[in-house]
Task: structure prediction
Amino acid sequence: MSHDNALQADFSAGPTRQIVELLLEHAVWLILIVLLAVFCIFIPGYAQTGIFFNILEQSTFIGLLSVSLAIVIIAGQMDLSCEATMALSAMVTAWLGSSQGLNLDLPGWLIVPITLSAALLLGIVIGLFNALLVLRVGVTAFIATLATYIFFRGTVVAFNGGKGIFGLNSDLRAVATFRVFGTPGLAVITIFIFVIFSAILRKTPFGRYLYLLGGNAVAPFRAGIPVVKVAVWAFVISGLLSAFAGWLLAARTAGATANLGVGMIFEAFAAVVIGGVSLKGGVGSLPGVFAGVLLLTSIRTAINLLGMPPQYTQMIQGALVLAAMTLDSFKQVIRVRYL
Amino acid sequence: MLNRAGISALVAASISFSYVPAFAQSKGTIAYLLPDSGGPFYPDAGKILKEFLQQEGYDLTILDSNNKSDVQLNQIDNVINLKPKAIIVAAVDFDAVVPGVEKAKAAGIPTIAFDRQIKGTTVGLTSVAGAVEIGQIAADQAADLLKARYGQVKGNVLEITGDPGDAYSVSLREGFDGKMKAFPDVKLVTKPAMQWEPTNAANVAQDQLQAVPNTDLIFYHSGYLASAVTAVVQAAGKKAGEVMMIDGDGDPGGLTQIRAGWQQVSVQQPMPAQVYAIAMFLDKVLKGEEIKPGKYDVLGLEGTMTNEKWGPNLKIPGSVITKANVDGPSNWGNGKVPQVKVQPVN
Result:
């Protein structure tokens, strides 16, 4: 028996295999824990509760975008417009809820639901528009949502002539600053969203339909599953979550600017891929994506605390993300070779 | 003697000869190529430029290249075909734009560099803010604020730059950091807000406030970032004035925070003066006349004209905005067009 065969035989046997499978399944969490340990040891000031709360809180926007992306990708589609939806939602929220915007002068208990409703309605409309382009007109999802990304990004700039809108209503601001037993409210919201949508994907027929649709669009259709409806819902959910992220973003930054959120789509993509969602569709889970989001935010926080010259920031961030993704890809090699 | 018909005809003729349509009065079109309308600076400069150029009889066409240097080059190519009297360009990339400027020169169209120096070729005029000097003024203001707090210049300072690749931010940092070196008791930490994105600035501020809770002062390179940074300072439980704040360009976002009491100083770019300078020297540029080096009064600011390798270069200093003068009409962040008559330089 060759050495490799011997190793394979060992791994194939009982509990060892199960342990290795478990570790491979959650490799991104392992990488996260290892990196956090390294950062805590080598970066002064990293190892404190406040920093960990910051990481959770700052993960909110990439986190919500990642969930929206993951859902459409699992369903075999794509939504590149989620960042633009978020930015436009933030701008509309600021416009409705700021003294420099419409200046509605309404009490907080009205301004919060009004702005939230407007933001979510915007998300639904954009989601439906994307669905129309892809499913009715027949444009490839990548192209259709790239076009809507460019269009809605331009809308954000044109909305207020390129100017930011500041002076957000204080009750709306409080959405971003409230705490639950000392934990930042945004972090609680993010975790809640991940838990809810993980449960939807795993435990509901709709979730199963998303995976089936992403794996093979023909088979579920032949099985009588309403594939178009499921795909429409995937786009609508993506729009809703992105718009909700925009509403929260306006609260966090106390307003909105024309370039708010720019570049977040790339981080969201990285988190989705690191988290194990296959770009081919039909594969992936949200807990992995959450770990991917935390990984990226932890790296960014580490760079924020490091005394590195600022012109190297993007390079270092990219290198660390590349290292994390390379480590994650080794799990495929191990799986193939030894299991 | 003229009969009634003759008088009517005479009146009609004099009316028609006295009416000169607007387009016949225009001396021509000038093209303004701005790099990005994602913030108010360049679009507002366009509004002021339009007003000043109209006084001198020129029409203004404005093009936005959305921060893409190749798009800006294409725009120069297209605009050359329209034969404008001049091209005013705020370059996306001052090296990449050089071929476009040289094409315009070959077509007999002078180029004026606005706000961003184009050093790789000669242009008719460069009108810029002294960004290094603005950084130095910001450092002086920071030193004054820290001295007022501690009786000496000491404390923890966080500098949030713009995108590390942005020339304005690089120059601001050069000026600010250079001056702060003279104060050994000031602990300066510098972090970038990548792509000038406010969430990135907020994250930087939040992490630094966690690592250094007794941060005394935050200097962000643009008031564009002010709202997001102020939000996290507030969320950290700080009161207005506890963490002092300065911005380095006079953006409306910074002025909002000065009015709200969270920000103490803005060192604004002299944008209206930079634009006025273009109108002041436009005739000389169009005629190809020599522009003498020296000091020039530009909307009350002392601009310094020097002859550089890339042509006449006018550098105008920034000015300080505090709560006392935050509503001043000359603050570009207030979005007002200065009500002045352009006095061309002879």
Remarks:
- Chain B is about 40% helix and 20% strand.
- The first strand of chain B starts at residue 28 and ends at 34.
- The CA atoms of residues 280 and 344 of chain B lie 4 Å apart.
- Confidence is low (pLDDT under 50) at residues 11-24 of chain B.
